[in-house]
Amino acid sequence: MNEKEKKTYLEQYKKDKEKGVPFYPDILFKDAVVSLLIFLVLAALAYFIGAPLEERANPSDTSYTPKPEWYFLFLFQLLKYFPGELEVVAVVVIPTLAIILLFLLPFLDRSTKRHFWNRPLISVLVIGSAAGVLFLTVQSIRETPPPAEASQGDPVAALYTENCAVCHSGTITVPEGTNLHDVIAQGTHEGMPAWSGDMTTDEIDALAGFILSPGGNALFKEYCSECHETSELVASDPIELKAALDEGDAYAPHAEVSIPEWSEEITLGERTALLNFLVAPDGQRLFATNCAQCHGRSVGFAGEENELRDLVSQGGLHLEMPPWRDTLNSDQLDALAQYVTASSDSGNTRELFEQYCASCHGKRIPTMDDYDQAREIIASGGAHETMPVWGEVLTSEQLGALVSYTMEAAEGTSLEAGQELFAQNCAVCHGDFGEGGPNPARSDDVIAPISTTEYLTTRDDHTLFQVIAQGQPNFGMSPFGSTFGGPLDDDQINTMVAYIRSWEANPPVELPPEVDSSSVSLSSGEVYAQLCAQCHGPEGLGDVGPSLRDPEFRAGNTSQDIFETISKGHEATPMIRWGDLLSQDTIQELTDFILGLEISEAGVKPEPTPGFSSFAEDVLPIFEAKCAPCHGSMGGWDSSSYDTVMTSGDNAPTIIPNDVENSILAQKITDTQTYGTMMPPGGKMTNNEIQLILDWISAGAPDN
Amino acid sequence: MITKIANWFDERVGWKAVWETIFLRKIPKVNWLYTLGSATLFTAVNQAVTGILLTIYYVPTPDHAYDSVQYITTQIPMGWLIRGLHHWGASAMVILTVLHMLRVILLGAYKYPREVTWFTGVFLLLVVVGFGFTGYLLPWDQKAYWGSSVGTRIAGSTPVVGDWILRVMRGGPDLSAITLVRFFGVHVWVLPASLILLLGIHMYLVIKIGISAVPKREEE
Q1: What percent helix, strand, coil does chain A show, rounded to 5?
Q2: pLDDT at residue A416 above 80?
Q3: Do residue A634 and residue A589 come from a single domain?
Q4: Which of A117, A374, B107, B209 falls 20 to 30 Å from A231 in CA-CA distance?
Q5: Among A380, A404, A423, where does a domain finish?
Q6: Are A155 and A273 part of one and the same domain?
Q7: Tally: H helices and E strands in chain B
């Protein structure tokens, strides 16, 4: 403002003043009215609400959730948005800046204009800041846990106050999909220490619940803490917790105590909060405590999120276990019960388990502590091992967390892809779970398991990669890396290494299988299927290697040429010197076998020639091994004979001759089914087995 | 008779001149928003009166603070009202101060010739905040103790000087009896003294310069 402007203003003000009113009584009257009004409001507040006074200050009770006076809440809330080292921004920078700006306001805004309409920048800034402060205050009130009176003497709240509140103040907003347990335990959050050294797992679980379900903690204190310690119930079985809350004294362990009917006492919302507190909606932790027992720690799922959600929420009610007492004698039941309780491994029992249980339970042996209970369960069967109907048990927060974690985890590690590659390339020799078996390349050799902890801890990823890429020609393993002429590129091998590595934490086999190594004598067809088919295709039509049925190939190679090639191999290709591994006789047989393959036009796949010769010899044994344990004694589809195979079943016919696509059986074993789950539930059959069954169907499903 | 007494005093005190300057001065026509300043002043007076009354019974030691507050609230006649007015008056004062400030900003009242009034106003805002912060601890209940504990800790997280600030505020590394006395001293002596000084300048300027007229919206 220059002198002239100042003068103009003062003159204008003088005029305004003259036109105005005297302070007394006009203005003073207005002021008095407003002041009286304010006084009345204050008196009313004092009368109706009063000045609150909580319990006496107790410096040793760290369980109290501190809360500043309401007009500081916006600062408190602001702190939450600047975690860790950024805290200084909220504590010092922003407030100091605000105060300095306020002081400098007359110098920053030097125009003569005074009406807010004429000073849009300042007006917007000020109203914006005021709105911001208001928003932060409201936000803070909404996020602050309910009144602290309820949480007095609460060990979980104490944990929070002692360890978290220093940096995080009252509450923490956790982004969806955070593996909170992990973050707390390992301090993966910037600047945050790893708490696992100072806190027990139970404490961390309780904290996660406290953070993710504000209020659940207070409910626990109110309703459960009289009988239960927090540590006793956190991260425990959600099924039991849910049952306990829903059934009241009908819940068996509560039968003896006089407790109210929780479902009437506690509202649904509160029960949800309580469950969310006890079993925090933290995907990774949920998976670890509830899914990993059956599914292992490696997460693999390739479908859509909704699909997974349905799968998890509907559970696996169809997986009924047959009552084994109908099939097995008492001794066998005893042996099995012994096996699962103590894992006392007498070769026989293992066989028994493999025969009856492995098709559903896979290689993972279910363990139980109580022998009688185990025996009873095996004998009577039923739904004991089915996947629980999680949809009825988990709160929507928990289910959501679990699903999004599984999706994320499955995506991040591509274990699914690794598993598929392993099944295609390695399982033939190493077994579905890397358990090993007889070496098809060397008659007196056994392939040791590669999925034991011992094997995996002694080999780093680089070594595994090299073994796969370069092969181990001396032991009959071809190179798989494309650099060495194999079918897989580096990415694929890395994916596979990651899958194999996932066994380390949770090895599917600990002990080398007992393999009868003496009597391995394979027909030339079997040798072909196990060794040559990898590159030349199961039907000799070629894949990585050339087609063996190509007229040109056959015209250019005599029997002697083929024999030589097999014996000496080709340099820098997966065709290793099989002569080092196979006997002359075997190679001769192989040569004859190859020459016996029908010549076909190059590139043209022949009509699906049945890869089987007989239903009774080829197909039925697969059914017996893989399907009959369940499909035979329990109603539904019966796999025990040709007639029942073709006619029985709830959705019969299960097999439509010549029509692989629409045959339910084919869909189920190839995992392309339109309803239900893949079969067998313990894991896909081998490619050979699947191919056999598919071939049989496409050949018209003959009974021969 | 009354006129006689009035004149007698005027001869010796000169109150009529003061009366005329303060109460009979002309004021531009203003709206109700212009009562916010007086309203704030009223709450300040309210706080002062009730606060002084509270000190009669309040004891600023950890042993007795809580009991004395409880005693005031439950035993003393109208004690609940005094404490209630003081408690709610604090919130009202903060709200009114901020509203008053918003009005001053939005209607450009801090401009020439009232810049100094504005500075004292900003200082007054800080004093009010200081009152709120120190007063929160005095009842010595859970809310007070832990709220102040966290509050001082947050202030103590300032880089470099943080630890020093924390020690000055708490009178030691922990929140203790010393902190309580310190907060009490600041709340009833330091801040009120600052308030009176600043308020004096603020009021003097308001009366001397006169409150700003309602600005007209200028067409551009």
Answers
A1: 60, 0, 40
A2: no
A3: no
A4: A374
A5: A380
A6: yes
A7: 10, 1
Q: Do A70 and B150 touch (CB under 8 A)?
A: no
Q: What is the pLDDT of residue A413?
A: 55
Report CB contact under 8 Å: B62, A57.
yes
Q: Are residues A134 and A164 in the same domain?
A: no
- B47, with CB counted inside 10 A (0-12, 13-18, 19+), is buried
Span of A423-437, A506-520, A629-643 with lowest mean pLDDT: A506-520
How far is it, in rounded angstroms, from Cα A474 to Cα A577? 9
The answer to whether the Cβ–Cβ distance between B132 and A71 falls below 8 Å is yes
Of the residues A596, A625, A642, the one at which a domain ends: A596
For residues A170 and A211, the answer to whether their CB atoms sit within 8 Å is no
Tell me which residue in A24, A64, A88 faces B142 most closely, judged by beta carbons. Answer: A64
Residues A153 and A281 in one domain: yes
Architecture of the B30-209 domain: Up-down Bundle (1.20)
In chain B, which among 190-219 make CB contacts under 8 A with chain A? 210, 212-213, 215-218
- In the predicted model, what is the mean pLDDT of residues A85-92? 84
**What domain range is A132 assigned to?**
70-143
Q: pTM to 2 decimals?
A: 0.47
Q: Which residue of A has its CA nearest to B61?
A: A57
* pLDDT confidence tier of residue A190, bands split at 50, 70 and 90: low
Q: What is the mean pLDDT of residues B154-164?
A: 87
Q: Is residue A489 part of a domain?
A: yes
pLDDT of residue A605: 45
Measure CB to CB from residue B111 to each of A24, A99, A106 and give the nearest one: A106
Q: Residue A35: closest CA among chain B residues belongs to which residue?
A: B39
With beta carbons under 8 A apart, name residues in chain A contacting B136: 68-69
Q: Searching chain A, which residue's CA lies closest to the CA of residue B174?
A: A59
Higher confidence at residue A326 or residue A477? Answer: A477
User: What sign does the dihedral B3-B9-B11-B16 (CA atoms) show?
Assistant: negative
Q: Is B21 on the interface with A (CB under 8 A)?
A: no
Helices (H), A174-267: 180-186, 201-212, 216-219, 230-233, 238-247, 262-265
Structural domain contains residue A310? no
* Higher per-residue pLDDT: B103 or A607: B103
Is A279 found in the same domain as A176?
Answer: yes
Tokens representing residue A46 in the block: 């004092």
Tell me the shortest Cα–Cα distance from B44 to chain A, in angstroms.
Answer: 11
- Please give the residue of chain B at the shortest CA–CA distance from A5: B112
Check residue A65 and give its pLDDT. 75
Tens of pLDDT along A421-454?
888 788 878 887 787 777 777 667 778 788 877 7
pLDDT for the residue A293: 62
Query: Same domain, yes or no, for A157 and A99?
Result: no
Quickly tell me which residue has 């008196």 as its tokens: A43
**From residue A385, how far is each of A236, A315, A321, A353 by CA, in Å?**
18, 11, 7, 15
* A448, A366: one domain: no
In the structure, what pLDDT confidence band is assigned to residue A384 with cuts at 50, 70 and 90? very low
C-alpha neighbours within 13 Å on the C-beta side of residue A341: 16
Comparing CA positions, the residue from A283, A494, A282, A275 lying closest to residue A394 is: A275
Give residues 72 to 91 of B whose Cβ lies within 8 Å of A: 73, 80-81, 83-89, 91
Mean pLDDT (chain A, rounded):
76
pLDDT in tens, B51-110: 999 999 999 999 899 999 999 999 999 999 999 999 999 999 999 999 999 999 999 999
- Which residues have CB under 8 Å from A223's CB, separation 6+? A262, A265, A266, A274
Domains contained in chain A, number: 7
Q: Going by C-beta distance under 8 Å and a sequence separation of 6 or more, which residues neighbour residue A560?
A: none
∠ CA A228-A385-A663, rounded to 5°: 145
